[in-house]
Amino acid sequence: MNVAYINPFINACIDVFDTFAGIASTPGKPVALKQPGGHGAIKGIIGLNGHGVNGYFIISFSRSFLEKIVTRLFDMTSSASTTELDDLAGELTNMITGSAKAQLSRQGYFFDVAVPRITHTLPDIPDHMKNTPVIMVPFTTPSGEYTIEASMKAVT
Description:
3 helices; single chain; Chemotaxis protein chec; eight-stranded antiparallel β-sheet; alpha+beta
């Protein structure tokens, strides 16, 4: 996978978590995978298709990490429900993908973004993407860790 595809997602994560939740994110070393690993309990996935690029983006969170964000945003002292955490994961996935899409379009890569899907299991990957390499990047924050995985390929 071209590094030009993953860097906008890394930058988008740093920007969104800082702007939205006031949380500094530090990316770790990228790792190449043959298939997605789905590291967190709650995962957001978005398909990215069209205009010369096909792929998907997955962001994986632990429940405790999302609960810390909810507490920080809404000054809550009680635990958030699974539905609330799923909604937050969907919003974060959408914001990160939107930011990355804008960065990619400035580089000449144009694609349509699907509605985020939230899952608690390993997401289903489209058949045409199953043999495409995946880049996984772990992030650390003062509130916990999360990972992103992206797989994109140019199509003609």
